[in-house]
């Protein structure tokens, strides 16, 4: 019993492998695009996080400076009906 394939079977096998390879290449390209897009979004989110952290630091410092001077701001006071 031999394991030799006919030319038609070899052609069919080769076409099947080529089809699988093309499908895998398509998915690799799709995944590569998705990863690149996520990387861009992550960079934007990191920039936004850094900006927010800096603004929070500035607000905290301004609040500390205001507390040390004893100044009260109108928005910190309770409304008259309390």
From TrEMBL:
Residues 70-82 have a biased composition (Basic and acidic residues). Residues 28-55 form a coiled coil. The keyword Coiled coil applies. The keyword Coiled coil applies. InterPro entries: SlyX. Residues 59-82 are annotated as: Disordered. Signal peptide: none annotated. Pfam families: SlyX (PF04102). Keywords: Coiled coil. PANTHER family: PROTEIN SLYX. This is SlyX family protein. It comes from Vreelandella andesensis.
């Amino acid at each position: 019993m031999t394991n030799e394939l006919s030319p038609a079977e070899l052609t069919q096998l080769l076409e099947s492998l080529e089809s699988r390879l093309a499908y895998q290449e398509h998915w690799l390209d799709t995944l590569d695009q998705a990863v690149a897009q996520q990387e861009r979004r992550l960079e934007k989110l990191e920039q936004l996080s850094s900006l927010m952290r800096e603004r929070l630091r500035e607000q905290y410092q301004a609040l500390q400076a205001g507390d040390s001077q004893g100044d009260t701001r109108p928005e910190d006071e309770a409304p008259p009906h309390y």
